[in-house]
Amino acid sequence: MNLAFRDVRHNLFRFLLTCLGLGLLMTVVLAMMGIYNGLVADALNIVKAPQADLWVVEAETQGPFAEASKIPGDTRDAVARLHGVAQAGSITYQTVEAPFEGATLRLYVIGYERGRLGGPQTIIRGRGLEASHFELVADAKTGLVPGDTLILGRNRFTVVGLVRDTMNSGGDPAVFLTLADAQVLQTQLAPPAARVQAARGASVTSGATVAAVIARLDPNVDAQNVAHTVRQWKHLSALTQAEQEDILIKSVVDKARKQIGLFLGILLTVSAVVIALIIYTMTMEKLKQIATLKLIGASDRVIIGLIVQQSLALGAVGLTLGLGLILTVKDYFPRRVLLEPVNALALAGIILVVCVLASGLGVRAALKVDPATALGG
Amino acid sequence: MTDDSRRVIVDIKGVAKHYGDGEARVDALRNVDLRVHAGEVVALLGPSGSGKTTLLNIIGCIIDPSEGQVSLDGEMVYDGKWLRGDLRRLRLDKIGFIFQAHNLLPFLNATDNVALVLQLAGKTPAQAQARAQELLDYLEVGHRARAMPALLSGGEAQRVAIARALANSPRIILADEPTAALDSKRAGIVMDLLRKLSSEQDACIIAVTHDEKILDRFDRLFHLRDGRLENDKGDTP
Ligand SMILES: Nc1ncnc2c1ncn2[C@@H]1O[C@H](COP(=O)(O)OP(=O)(O)OP(=O)(O)O)[C@@H](O)[C@H]1O
Ligand SMILES: [Mg+2]
């Protein structure tokens, strides 16, 4: 007969309660992992969305995400004419705040040229932009639905479609406007000093700048070669898609990663200590029974089995509860929680090790206990 | 009937046990000789602290003597050191313990508490269950076979514990105040039962007791005083 199972069944409620506690802890650990993954995935999403091969940005910047980048609006024509470039599109990015239904929405405005690169990928509701002005496609996280209207700058825009999982590295959901609308918005929201300059006509091109030009290359064209050509142009620089992703992860995500990584480390340590403590106390409470087992002739194997099986069961049930819980609640988090099977596996591995180590402590105490303690005085 | 006509099951020679050293030294047993034969039921008596539990624990191979020899069922098991590597196996095969508190495992029902020792000794689960049920019936607690220990009365629990002690048909049954938790009627029943067992299974029973009421149920009484053993009836122990 399996003693571990019998003992668990005898104290089922308490065992389940302990598992639940452990499960909640596992939920938090998994949430942390998921948030971290989500952070990286979201940050990369915005870079990956246009499916570009090359990013043309302002010289000596690592724009347009890690640093501000401003290039003339006509750059796109020059890029499009380059040998090996299949398609090119101008694109702008800016963060704005807009009042909506009594609250303030923080939005990441992406301006793109309709019919060219950089627009929304998969529309999950409604349609893409069809008019050249005053329409927008929003990320579902904004809470907007097709038909809603909202004031950006001095114009009222109508929501015509929704996309999913498009946001900047700060978590602000994206809205897509036509490039022209986005450029107007840029001047309207520019700081007063710049606006005065613009009104005086000091900078004629300012209304027509874009953040970057993205290009998709013909098959079998080396992005590095094209980038090299662009870098020789005055005032311009170029990054391949891979470089762009790298920069984003290093500069934008890195701090968040360290923060979350540290937090995750602390959480895992706490979990390990808690698990060890639970298993140790579980054994300590059974010392008298273990002494009895020794007295009636049970071998060490039977006693070790009792302790190790119970702690593994505790870890397994706790982890399962944690997984179930996080999968149920993950969509209610403000940031995307993205869990990969490898995360669950890693956690399972850690818990396995902790359980085995902790039961080692219990086993040590159990093997030391004198069978005479079962007899009493 | 002379004692020598019967098989000696427990043979203790010159056993001493002290705890601690120097100022703190306690001589719990001094030069104890004891022989108990198959079918005998003997009592260990003595004031508190006289060494009764210590002697029982030495016979049960639970603590090491400081001096002397212990032989059980014809086999020398202690002579300056334990001569058997696996004392737990020895206990499993030869010795049954009956505790003052019944010490049943709280998470196993009555039958499984008994069946466990049978399975530990290598019986299949089915054999173990059958024999456990048989023993419980024999001890007249068969109707409580599925009950958890917490739900058994003191007397029922003690009888289940006795069934467990008997499960592997041990030659030696050691009992530390087996009737302390029982009223005098039930104490009498348990003692009658132990007597019956000793003769049926040809086992010897050594019981520590303070209970005056049951002394007439023993074949021999041994008194311990300050770690020295004296036989009540004047025989050589
Ligand atoms: N583990 C130990 N360490 C030190 N001294 C001990 C230990 N166990 C017993 N003793 C001492 O040995 C002596 C005999 O103890 P023992 O438990 O055998 O007495 P007892 O006759 O069973 O007493 P009681 O009737 O109270 O159960 C006592 O003085 C006791 O204090
Ligand atoms: Mg005692």
Taking Cα atoms only, what radius of gyration of chain B do you get, to the nearest Å? 18 Å
Tally of individual helices of chain A: 10
Strand content of chain A: 15-25%
Biggest sheet descriptor of chain A: 10 strands, mixed
Distance between the termini of chain B: 16 Å
Unreliable segments of 5+ consecutive residues of chain B? none
Please explain how this structure is put together.
The complex is a heterodimer of chains A (377) and B (237). Chain A has helices at 3-10, 12-48, 75-81, 179-189, 192-199, 223-231, 241-285, 287-295, 300-329, 341-368, and strands at 54-58, 85-100, 103-112, 125-126, 135-139, 149-152, 155-163, 174-178, 212-217, 236-240. With 377 residues, chain A is α+β, with helices and mostly antiparallel strands. Chain A folds into two domains: 3-43 and 255-375, no CATH class; 49-252, no CATH class. In chain A, strands 1, 2, 3, 4, 5, 6, 7, 8, 9 and 10 form a ten-stranded mixed sheet that branches. Residues 202-207 of chain A have low confidence and may be disordered. With 237 residues, chain B is α/β, with parallel strands linked by helices. Chain B has a domain at 4-105 and 169-231: P-loop containing nucleotide triphosphate hydrolases (Rossmann fold, 3-Layer(aba) Sandwich), CATH 3.40.50. Chain B is built from six helices and ten strands; from the N terminus they run βββαββαβαααβαβββ. Chain B has helices at residues 52-59, 87-94, 110-120, 125-138, 154-166, 184-201, and strands at 8-19, 26-37, 41-45, 67-72, 75-79, 95-98, 172-176, 204-208, 220-225, 228-231. In chain B, the strands form two sheets. Chain B has a six-stranded mixed sheet with strand order 6-7-8-3-9-10. Chain B has a four-stranded antiparallel sheet with strand order 2-1-4-5, covered by helices on one side. In chain B, helix 3 crosses helix 4 and helix 3 (110-120) packs parallel to helix 5. The radius of gyration of chain B is 18 Å and the shape is globular. In chain B, 48% of the residues are buried. The mean pLDDT of chain B is 88. The A-B interface holds A 1, 3, 6-7, 9-11, 288-289, 292-299, 302, 370-372, 374-377 and B 53, 56-57, 60, 62-63, 88-89, 91-93, 97, 99-101, 103, 105-108, 112, 115-117, 119-121, 125, 148, 164, 176. The complex binds adenosine-5'-triphosphate and magnesium ion. Adenosine-5'-triphosphate (ATP) is lined by residues 19-20, 26, 28, 46, 48-54 of chain B.
